[in-house]
Structure formats: structure tokens, C-alpha cells
Amino acid sequence: MMASSIPHLFRCPISLELFTDPVTLCTGQTYERSSIEKWMAAGNLTCPVTMQKLHDTSVVPNHTLRHLIDQWFQGTGLDEPFLLSLKQNLSSDQATITSKIQALGTIRALLEESPWIHSHINQLGFVPLLIELISGGSVTRPSAEWLRLVEEGLACIVDILALRPSDGSLCKMFQEGFRLASFKILFKQGSDRIMVLMCKVVEMLSISSETKYPCQIMREIVILICHKEEEISRAALRAVHALCCLENNLENLVKAGAVEGVIGFILRVDQNDKVKDLTAAAASTLEKLVGIDEGKEALLNHPYGVVAVVRNVFRVSSDRQSIESALNSLMVMCSGSASSRASHQAIDAGVLSQLLLLLQSHCSSRTKTKARTLLKLLGT
């Protein structure tokens, strides 16, 4: 047998060889028994893949994966009874959390190795079960084990959504099945990975016109835009940017503090090179938010609101989209009932020198036209 023909799912992450005796750690990761025992015997008390500290060094045989490898050897393929056995494991009150984490890991690996299997998984009703799995239980005081189960469940949902990006029925299932209380608890007590995955789910579901999240959920996401962890901040901004694509979300986003959150993100871009690539998304998000009166007022009332937009008018590191979004936002702000107030704030923030620099740069003729239009609105 050619080593390259062995599915990634069936290889030990340590030895990269075919599993013969797969066992699972408390982190949910599976290894060949001899490999992980050698790792721990050398004094390593972390999971080799996740690098999480092991609070429990015991291992559990992964019978699910063993059965899957046996099926692969026999050439019988992935039959419906096997998938149903995974579903039964996930829905059973008698199954341990570790075995459920194993089952979720198997599903994720199957989706990666054989993307076509998602249709069978959906037909067998896995999605509602996954939603129930991550939003059920005693969420007021979640255990570490339950949170690990939630992580794998959310990762599984993200994988399924990635294969069906425009499926409105999945969006409806998630919104009807996920409990608001669970959502808030996960954002407050969940791991960094849970917060990132929750933001990814919201972002992916926002493609559908069915998306309607209550203000409380949006507020939890908005708070994360200025999170100290870069990955969380990125995921939150992308989620808010996606939500802005639907006009019926804008008012709730403004109420949830999205304008203030995005302004905070823009202001810290100069101090954090790692998030500069999201400048365009931030500028585009702000452009959409100030398109409604409530958003415009929120930006004007922020002590650094106009300053943040002006900073995006001319950035050496910004792309054309970011600059044009900033110009569009300023043109909206400097026209209408609050034009005088916005114009004075923009001029005080140095917009005139920024525009003159822009007109002397190598930007497109369209961008220069917008810059000239803004200069006229400013009365110069």
C-alpha cells in the first residue's frame, strides 16, 4: 500500500503512520497509543497538536476511528448505518463527552477527506443535533468538558457551512435552534477558539437574507472587535462586516455599538501591523453604518469618530477600497442636516491636507473625483 494513499484521518499526528491502536486524550485529539505514551514518558504533559496542558493523562480507545479504518480496508465505503451510529452516539445521554468529541472529530475528518458526504450528513439530521448539542446542557456554569464539546461542535458546523455557503435553511435552523442564553454564556465563558468559531458561524450565516439576529447577540460580537487577541478581533470584525451587507441589520448594529467598535479598531490599526489588512473591511463597514441616520449620529458623537475616518483617506498601506470607503463616509457626513458640524470636525482632523496629498498621488481618476467633490462640500 502506498503511504500517500492513506487518508489523513487515518494517520497519527505524531508518527504520520496508519493507526493500529488509536486512543484519544482529554483534549479530544487522537494519537497512536505507542506514540502518545512515548511523548508523555519523555515528560511532556501537553497535547502535541493543540499544546493544551493535560489535566488528565489517561487515554481512551477510539473505537469509532478503528471501525472506520476497518471499513476502509474492506473497501465497503461509508455506509448509512455507520453515520447513524455516529448520530446515535451524539444524541445518547449514556455516551460520554469524550466519545462525543471523538464522533465530532470523525465527522470533521470525513468532511475534509470526502466533502461529498455533507449531503448524507444533512439528510440524516445532523445539523439540528449539532445545534442542540452546543446550545443545550447547563450553560449557567459550563464545565471544561462541555466547553471542549462545544468547540468541536461549532467547528463541525463551520465545516458544514463552508460546504453549503448559500443554504438559507441552515441559517433558519441555527437561528431557531440556538438559545440566546447559551450564545451569551459562550461569549463570556468560552475559550478563545469558541469565540472565533461563533463569529465565523455568524459571518457565514449572514450570507443568507434570512439572517436576523437580536441586538443582544450583535452586541456580544461587537464587543470582541477590540479584543486584545488578534484572531478574535479579526473574526468579530468580519462577522460585523458580513452583517452590514443586509440593510435590516444596520439599525440593530448601531444600537449594539458597532460604530464605536469599528472606530476603535481603525484607531488601533496604526499600532498593530498584523491587522492592517482588515482596514478595508473596517472602512467599508463604517461606510454602511453611516448610511443610516442613527449611524451618522453615532459617528458624530464619538470624540474620535471623524478622526478615524479621516485617517483612512490617505494611508500608504491602504488599498483603493479603503480610501474610497472613507471618502464616501465623509461625503455622507458632510452633506445633510449635520453637514456643518461634520465639516468642522473633518477640517480639525486634518482632512484638507489629506485630500491634497491624495490628489497628488497615483490613485485612480475616480478616487480623485471623489476627493474634489469632498473639497467642494467642505467649502474650499
UniProtKB/TrEMBL annotation:
One of its GO terms (biological process) is protein ubiquitination. Keywords: Transferase, Ubl conjugation pathway. Residues 5-79 form the U-box domain. GO terms for molecular function: ubiquitin protein ligase activity. It catalyses: S-ubiquitinyl-[E2 ubiquitin-conjugating enzyme]-L-cysteine + [acceptor protein]-L-lysine = [E2 ubiquitin-conjugating enzyme]-L-cysteine + N(6)-ubiquitinyl-[acceptor protein]-L-lysine. This is U-box domain-containing protein. It comes from the Eukaryota. Pathway: Protein modification; protein ubiquitination. InterPro entries: ARM-like, ARM-type_fold, ARM_PUB, PUB22/23/24-like, RING-Ubox_PUB, Ubox_domain, Znf_RING/FYVE/PHD. It is an enzyme of class 2 (transferase). Functions as an E3 ubiquitin ligase. Its EC number is 2.3.2.27.
